[in-house]
Design goal:
Elements: E1 17-22, E2 27-32, H1 37-44, E3 62-67, E4 70-72, H2 82-86, E5 89-91, E6 95-97, E7 101-104
Parallel strand pairs: 1-7
Antiparallel strand pairs: 1-2, 3-5, 3-7, 4-6
The structure holds FE2/S2 (inorganic) cluster (FES).
GO molecular function: iron-sulfur cluster binding
Protein name: Ferredoxin
Keywords: FAD, Flavoprotein
C-alpha cells in the first residue's frame, strides 16, 4: 500500500464580491471576501466610514450592521462589548463580508477618539 501526497497547493477559494450600502451616508462600495470593510471603503475612494488605526484598536470605525452576513476577527472589548457585537455593532476594520450588507456608520463610543491618527504598523493589524 502506498500513500501519495499532493504537493500542489490547494486552489484558493475564489474571491466573492459584495455590495455595502451605508444607509446614513447614502453611499455604497464593493468589498471582496478577503478585505475588511474599512479597507474596501478606502480602496473605493468612498468616505462613508471614519478611519482611525485600521487595526481594531481605536473604535473610530464602529458601524451598525443592519442587514447581511459577515465574519468578525478579534475586536477590542474596550470598543465593542459582547452585547454590542450581538446587536451588530462592530469595527469595520475587523469584519469580512459574507453577503451584501446594509450598515450605518458614525457609531462612535467616545468623541475624543477623533484625534487618533491612521497607523499601519500596529501588531494587532496582523491578527
Ligand atoms: S480604525 Fe481603529 S478600530 Fe477600526
Amino acid at each position: 500500500m502506498s500513500i501519495t501526497k499532493n504537493s500542489q497547493p490547494a486552489d484558493p477559494a475564489p474571491l466573492k464580491r459584495f455590495r455595502v450600502w451605508v444607509a446614513n451616508r447614502q453611499q455604497s462600495f464593493t468589498v471582496t471576501s478577503d478585505q475588511s470593510l474599512l479597507a474596501a471603503m478606502e480602496q473605493s475612494g468612498a468616505q462613508a466610514i471614519d478611519v482611525g488605526c485600521r487595526c481594531g484598536g481605536c473604535g473610530r470605525c464602529r458601524i451598525q450592521v443592519l442587514h447581511g452576513q459577515y465574519e468578525s476577527k478579534r475586536m477590542s472589548r474596550a470598543h465593542v462589548s459582547e452585547h454590542d457585537e450581538a446587536q451588530g455593532l462592530v469595527l469595520a476594520c475587523r469584519i469580512l463580508a459574507r453577503s451584501d450588507l446594509v450598515i450605518e456608520s458614525d457609531q462612535f463610543q467616545d468623541p475624543r477618539q477623533a484625534t487618533v491618527e491612521p497607523n499601519n504598523n500596529n501588531e494587532e493589524c496582523k491578527q
